[in-house]
Design goal:
four-stranded mixed sheet; hydroxyisourate hydrolase activity; purine metabolism; globular; mainly beta; 2 helices; Immunoglobulin-like; 12% helix; four-stranded antiparallel sheet
Length: 140
């Protein structure tokens, strides 16, 4: 027997229990990043990441954060700003991270440029990192 939400609400109302309407979920931040260490296979905590937006011929900094113990920044886009279509980039400050860990690296910064096409979508940018190479893609 298939029971719909409307049937459950009707049954609750007829039994004297008020039905509660579903509340919309809070808006999800449109941008997250994740850094994984290719040498160890572990998340990389402590990497500073900056978000910039292309405005005319300049890059304008919108926000920054530091990866947590899981190598993530779950909400990099500014909370009080609405995401709009355009060109953006995240800059992973890998040189600072490797300097703190006394390791050499070939890439002091890794800028990843991307295009946001539609508001309401979520953009996730993973970075697979080693001292002398990296890879990235659009995650979900």
């Amino acid at each position: 027997m298939k029971i719909s939400y409307a049937l459950i609400a009707t049954l609750l109302m007829t039994s004297g229990v008020a039905a509660v309407a579903a509340q919309p979920a809070a808006a999800k931040n449109p941008l997250s990043v994740h850094v994984l260490n290719l040498q160890t296979g572990q998340p990389t905590a402590g990497i500073e990441v900056e978000l910039e937006q292309k405005q005319r011929d300049n890059w304008v900094k919108l926000a920054s954060g530091v990866t947590d113990n899981n190598g993530r920044i779950r909400a990099l886009f500014p909370q009080k700003k609405t995401a709009s279509a355009g060109n953006y980039r995240v800059v992973f400050k890998t040189g600072d991270f490797y300097k703190k860990t006394n390791q050499k690296t070939f890439f002091p910064e890794i800028p990843v440029e991307f295009n946001m096409e539609a508001s309401g979508e979520h953009y996730h940018i993973p970075l697979l990192l080693s001292p002398f190479g990296y890879s990235t893609y659009r995650g979900n």
